[in-house]
């Protein structure tokens, strides 16, 4: 696995992550040459990302609300992170969760990591991919107001 590219223009998300000295750290998480992008690799990717985040002091599987079982992948201070390697229909739900945390004043910025379109095709059918998510994020920029940094890996 390696970093392909980032999209950091959504409501100045890149600036938010750089201001906290976290953008380079985050993108480095996706430089893992020993992980191969192929069918059935999602558990290995998730385990790798979880280990990296735990090692840096992030809380994993953070509930949006005590009365709900809805969670984000990780949160640290005023940043939230979501990893999506599943079905494309999950990506808009990720936007909704991150927007909720932002509107609740629990975060100031977020990041969403996904495979590129080509990597998603290797993982499986109808897997969420950064190419489509970026287009949709641009379309809904007035609805999704949380600054979201998109991290694309392959």
How would you classify the helix and strand content by structural class? alpha/beta
Strand runs, count = 6
Shape: globular
Number of helices: 6
What CATH architecture do you see?
3-Layer(aba) Sandwich
The portion of residues assigned to helices is 25-40%
**Largest sheet report:** 6 strands, mixed
Q: Could you tell me the strand content as a percent range? A: 15-25%
**How many domains, in number, for the residues?**
1
Q: Order of strands in the sheet with the most strands?
A: 1-6-5-4-3-2
Roughly how many Å is the radius of gyration?
A: 14 Å
Instruction: Determine the CATH topology.
Output: Restriction Endonuclease
Q: SSE order in H/E notation?
A: EHHHEEEHEHHE
Quick description:
The protein is α/β, with parallel strands linked by helices and 154 residues long. Helices cover 38% and strands 22% of the residues. The protein has six helices and six strands.
Write structural notes for this entry.
By secondary structure, this protein is an alpha/beta fold. The chain has a single domain (3-153), classed as Restriction Endonuclease, CATH 3.40.91.20. It contains 6 helices and 6 strands, in the order βαααβββαβααβ. The chain has helices at residues 13-19, 23-29, 42-55, 90-103, 117-123, 130-139; strands spanning 3-7, 59-63, 71-76, 79-83, 109-115, 148-153. The protein has a 6-stranded mixed beta sheet with strand order 1-6-5-4-3-2, with helices on both faces. Helix 4 links the parallel strand 4 and strand 5. It is globular. The N and C termini lie close together (5 Å). The model has no long low-confidence stretch (mean pLDDT 97).
């Amino acid at each position: 696995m390696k970093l392909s590219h980032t999209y950091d223009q959504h409501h100045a998300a890149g600036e938010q992550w750089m201001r906290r000295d976290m953008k380079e750290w985050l993108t480095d998480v996706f430089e893992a040459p020993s992980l191969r992008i192929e069918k059935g690799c999602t558990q290995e990717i998730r385990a790798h990302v979880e280990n990296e985040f735990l090692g840096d002091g992030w809380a994993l599987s953070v509930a949006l609300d005590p009365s709900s079982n809805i969670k984000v992948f990780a949160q640290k201070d005023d940043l939230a992170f979501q990893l999506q390697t599943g079905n494309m229909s999950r990506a808009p739900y990720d936007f909704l969760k991150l927007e909720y945390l932002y509107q609740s004043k629990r975060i100031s910025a977020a990041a969403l990591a996904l495979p590129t379109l080509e990597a998603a095709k290797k993982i499986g059918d109808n897997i969420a991919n950064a190419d489509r998510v970026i287009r949709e994020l641009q379309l809904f920029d007035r609805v999704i107001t949380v600054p979201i940094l998109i991290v694309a890996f392959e």
